[in-house]
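Methods — Computational structure assignment.
A single polypeptide chain was analysed. Its primary sequence is given first, followed by the predicted tertiary structure written as structure tokens.
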Amino acid sequence: MEKNSKIYLAGHTGMVGSAVHKTLSDKGYENIVGRHFSELDLRNQAGVNTFFEFEKPEVVIVAAAKVGGILANDTYRAEFLYDNLMIEANLIHAAHVHGVKKLIFLGSSCIYPKFADQPLKEEYLLTDELEQTNEPYAIAKIAGIKLCENYFRQYGSNFYSVMPTNLYGPADNYDLKTSHVLPALIRKFHTAAKENHPAVEVWGTGKPRREFLYSLEFADALVYLLERVDAKDVYSKGISHINIGTGEDVTIRDLAETIKKITGFKGEVKFDSTKPDGTPRKLMDVSRLNNLGWKHHLTLDQGIQKAYDWYLESIA
């Protein structure tokens, strides 16, 4: 891939997309194309095809998706399935039709079975049932993975998928109705500290374990793979995607205590066990990624501090 290759970054304004855009720019890639949703509805096949005909991208990164936490996934089940199926199908098919040289699709760690062995190896995909609360989103992401795999197998298209763990960082979503656990807790603890609340309520028992990766580190891993790995390298290993994560996890209880300390909240942390926990554990096996030469550097405390600094400057 050349520095002047035209790269279409779908979802360039979101947390993940903006991190990837910054990383590409920092590495000297100057020809990056993006479209806001108001300009291009990726659920519209005709609009997507017109865009590809006009822009003729050589490389496509599919970071666009409808995303959210447990509450959003379980509430807007139809939208999470339909919107994500349409977005990925339109983009992947258009990339094939218009001769895109390379495409990377971003999935999610929720694709793995609810009770899969830990850490989660790439080959565990489709070996058991999914977590019910985010099943529609997971099914949509699995469909995207299989689209990439089978466009490669049938047509030789240089398309493959990467599976990020839970991401957080600048431009994250802090809406308590739709956000993921880490940004939701940052907002809750910040508000409680500022307004001197006696306690902060956290959903679930606090026992589930989760892995978190700072968005700019994920972007660095993605660009690293973009520059070095092709579809044939992935599928020749008998897998359909590559995990991207830290290989380290924490309990939600420990996460809450860390955010409590960083935000300066002095009150009590209460866990509401009537609310769902979700999957008991989601830890990625990142041995393949590490063997390819990439490993994360930031600790979770360092990453949360960076995320909180951004929140203070941009939102609070």
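Note: The radius of gyration is 19 Å.
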